[in-house]
C-alpha cells in the first residue's frame, strides 16, 4: 500500500482527498496546512507520494518540493492546484514534481496519475487544461513609442498625447505609424490587442 501525505491549506480539500485516496487503496499517513508544517512532517516521514498545493499561507509548494528533493528522491510529488498557467507548471516540473493536476479535474484522474507513477511510469503528467503563456516580445519599440502606445490605450487623441509627452502632433503621428508598422497592426484596436497580449502595456 502506498503511503501519502497531503499538503493543502484547506481542511475540506484535505478531508475529501483523504476519503477518496483511502477508498482507492492508498494510506494517508499525514496532512499539513502550511509550508512549515509540511517540512516538519516530511523531515520525519518519507511517503511514497506527497500531494501538494502551490499556494500555501507561508510559502509555495514548489519550495517544499525543491527542499525535500535535495534530501531524498524516494517520494514522488504531485502538484494539485488551481493555478492553470504555464509558468507555474514549468516551475513545478523543474523542481522535480512528477505530475501537475488541476483541482478542476475529476478525483479519479488524480488517482489514475498516482497509480501510473506507482507502476514506474516516470513521464511528467499534466491533468487539466493549462493556459499556454505567450512569450513576451518588445517588437523593437523605442521607449518613446512605448509611452505613446500606453497613452493609446487610454483613448487619447494624437493631439492630447502630444501635450502629455511634450511632442508635436505630427511627431506623435510619426510614432504611431512606426508602432503600427512594428506590430503589424492596421488600426488602434489591433495594436492594443497585440500590446496587451505581449504585456507591452498595462490593461
Task: Quickly count the domains.
Answer: 2
Total number of strands: 8
Which percent band covers the strand fraction?
15-25%
What is the terminal-to-terminal distance? 51 Å
Mean pLDDT: 91
The CATH topology of the largest domain is given as Rossmann fold
Summarize the structure.
By secondary structure, the protein is α/β, with parallel strands linked by helices. It is built from nine helices and eight strands. The chain has two domains: 125 residues, 3-Layer(aba) Sandwich (Rossmann fold); 55 residues, Orthogonal Bundle (Arc Repressor Mutant, subunit A).
Care to describe what's here?
The protein is α/β, with parallel strands linked by helices and 203 residues long. It folds into 2 domains: 3-127, 3-Layer(aba) Sandwich (Rossmann fold); 143-197, Arc Repressor Mutant, subunit A (Orthogonal Bundle), CATH 1.10.10.10. It starts with a strand and ends in a 6-residue tail after the last helix. The chain has helices spanning 11-23, 35-42, 61-69, 86-95, 107-118, 143-152, 158-165, 169-183, 188-197; strands spanning 3-7, 27-32, 49-52, 55-56, 59-60, 76-81, 99-102, 125-127. The radius of gyration is 24 Å and the shape is elongated.
Features of this protein?
single chain; 203 residues; alpha/beta; Rossmann fold; Arc Repressor Mutant, subunit A; 2 domains; two-stranded antiparallel ribbon; 9 helices; 47% helix; elongated
How would the blueprint of this fold be written?
Layout: E1 3-7, H1 11-23, E2 27-32, H2 35-42, E3 49-52, E4 55-56, E5 59-60, H3 61-69, E6 76-81, H4 86-95, E7 99-102, H5 107-118, E8 125-127, H6 143-152, H7 158-165, H8 169-183, H9 188-197
Helix pairs in contact: 2-3, 6-8, 7-8
Amino acid at each position: 500500500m502506498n503511503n501519502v501525505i497531503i499538503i493543502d491549506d484547506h481542511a475540506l480539500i484535505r478531508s475529501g482527498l483523504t476519503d477518496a485516496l483511502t477508498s482507492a487503496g492508498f494510506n494517508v499517513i499525514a496532512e499539513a496546512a502550511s509550508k512549515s508544517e509540511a517540512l516538519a512532517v516530511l523531515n520525519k516521514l518519507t511517503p511514497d507520494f506527497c500531494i501538494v498545493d502551490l499556494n500555501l499561507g507561508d510559502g509555495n509548494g514548489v519550495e517544499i518540493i525543491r527542499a525535500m528533493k535535495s534530501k531524498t528522491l524516494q517520494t514522488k510529488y504531485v502538484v494539485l492546484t488551481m493555478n492553470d498557467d504555464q509558468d507555474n507548471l514549468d516551475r513545478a516540473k523543474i523542481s522535480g514534481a512528477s505530475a501537475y493536476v488541476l483541482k478542476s479535474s475529476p478525483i479519479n484522474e488524480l488517482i489514475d496519475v498516482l497509480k501510473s507513477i506507482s507502476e514506474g511510469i516516470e513521464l511528467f503528467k499534466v491533468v487539466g487544461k493549462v493556459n499556454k503563456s505567450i512569450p513576451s516580445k518588445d517588437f523593437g519599440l523605442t521607449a518613446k513609442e512605448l509611452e505613446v502606445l500606453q497613452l493609446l490605450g487610454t483613448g487619447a487623441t494624437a493631439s492630447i498625447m502630444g501635450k502629455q509627452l511634450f511632442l508635436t502632433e505630427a511627431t506623435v503621428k510619426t510614432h504611431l505609424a512606426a508602432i503600427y508598422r512594428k506590430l503589424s497592426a492596421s488600426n488602434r484596436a489591433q495594436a492594443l490587442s497585440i500590446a496587451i497580449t505581449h504585456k507591452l502595456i498595462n490593461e
